[in-house]
TrEMBL record:
PANTHER family: FAD DEPENDENT OXIDOREDUCTASE DOMAIN-CONTAINING PROTEIN (PTHR10961:SF7), PEROXISOMAL SARCOSINE OXIDASE (PTHR10961). Gene3D superfamilies: D-Amino Acid Oxidase, subunit A, domain 2, FAD/NAD(P)-binding domain. It comes from the Bacteria. This is FAD-dependent oxidoreductase. Its cofactor is FAD. Pfam families: DAO (PF01266). InterPro entries: FAD-dep_OxRdtase (IPR006076), FAD/NAD-bd_sf (IPR036188), MTOX (IPR045170).
Length: 376
């Protein structure tokens, strides 16, 4: 007899969703959390994450995005809480630059719903953005912002109602497959499960098998907020989420959720770190200068001084694709980590796939491009 049929190591963005989805089929689900769910130093921190159906390289991810969109709605219905703010989204850049043509190629490959807005139409609909004459925007009606803490805690609450349990302050130190079960160790304590899902985010490296562990690294992600001159101009009903690559820089952001500040952060600036538990939380002078310049250039309705900033950990892979599948040579250890800063938008879909793997043992339920065996 094992302690649970399914173990989930890490109850953050992916782990919480895996527990929720697994609990739909099996009440014997045991989660292991090094601190507490949605703790302030986890990758879940920072209030919100963007949900986008379109971006460069969308095509292989599009089925997962579609699945995720449906599951975010299912989570809202089951929990009775608002998780996804459906405000739409804008991808902005130079019409003939590197970004917009590549984005449209990806959209055409997957057939995502969209509309191209010229500068004049943008000025009429979304005057918060100061566009150059050659800039356009791609409108995605299904985009929005995810409330990270609410999403994680709602998923765990739904799982708990079906009998799933989370062990808090339990830092797993090893995962070992033994005969017909998996042994999970935390200090001097040991549990056994039939199958386990490893979703420990930036801290997962030490739990991965050697060929895979060498291909991941923890990163530091900086998030910043600015105060609006007129907060009403940046409310969710008039200011969609956005990503903009233009004028030699790039930034993404979300509408004001507190009626005062607007999240606007540098895009693609994750930096490698040695210890995800000891991130440098204060922005460097160079980071502050760049993010202030981008905010002043893009959004003149913001006061160009950072009023809030923090850093959060994530796990990246060397090839930029996630780890989602059975550990090489294993039929009991599922890896679901290394999402390269793009995991939360698809967390519900990824969690569902991880749960399917753990329940059925069928490796074909995961996309081939996420198979950890590619690193062997």
């Amino acid at each position: 007899m094992t302690d649970a049929h399914i173990g989930v190591i890490g109850t953050g963005s992916i782990g919480s969703m895996a527990m929720w989805q697994a609990s739909l089929h099996d009440s014997s689900v045991l989660g292991f959390e090094a601190q507490t769910p949605a703790h302030p130093r986890s990758a879940v921190g920072g209030d919100s994450r963007l949900f986008r159906m379109v971006y460069r390289g969308t095509a292989p991810y599009y089925p997962i995005l579609q699945r995720s969109l449906q599951l975010w709605g299912d989570l809202e219905e089951e929990s009775g809480r608002s998780v996804l703010g459906r405000c739409g989204g804008l991808s902005i850049g130079h019409r003939d630059g590197d970004y917009i043509p590549a984005l449209l190629d990806s959209i055409n490959a997957c057939g995502a719903e969209h509309r191209v807005l010229g500068r004049d139409e943008m000025a009429d609909r979304y005057p918060q953005h100061d566009l150059d004459s050659d800039e356009v925007a791609v409108w995605d009606p299904h985009s929005g912002y995810l409330k990270t803490d609410t999403a994680v805690l709602s998923a765990l609450d739904c799982a708990g109602r079906r009998g799933a349990t989370v062990l808090t302050d339990t830092q797993v130190t090893s995962v070992t497959e033994v005969d017909d079960h998996v042994r999970i160790t935390a200090g001097d304590r040991v549990w056994t499960v039939d199958r386990v899902i490893v979703t420990g985010g930036a801290w997962a490296g030490s739990l991965l098998p050697a060929p895979v562990a060498d291909k991941v690294y923890p990163t530091r992600v900086l998030l910043t907020w600015f105060e609006a001159k007129n907060a009403a101009d940046f409310a969710p009903d008039v200011f969609p989420i956005f990503i903009r690559i233009a004028r030699g820089t790039s930034m993404y952001g979300a509408p004001s959720l507190d009626g005062a500040t607007v999240k606007a952060s540098l895009d693609g600036r994750a930096t490698r770190t040695d210890d995800p538990s000891d991130l440098v939380r204060v922005p460097t002078t160079a980071e502050m200068e760049e993010v202030r310049h981008a905010a002043a250039s893009y959004l003149p309705g913001l006061i160009p001084y950072v009023v809030r900033a923090d850093t959060y950990p994530d796990l990246f892979t060397t090839d930029g694709s996630p780890l989602l599948g059975f550990a090489p040579g294993s039929q009991r250890i599922v890896l679901a980590t290394g999402f390269n800063g793009l995991g939360f938008k698809m967390a519900s879909g990824y969690g569902s796939i991880a749960a399917d793997l753990a329940i059925t043992g069928d490796p074909t339920t995961a996309p081939s491009f996420t198979d950890p065996a590619r690193f062997v």
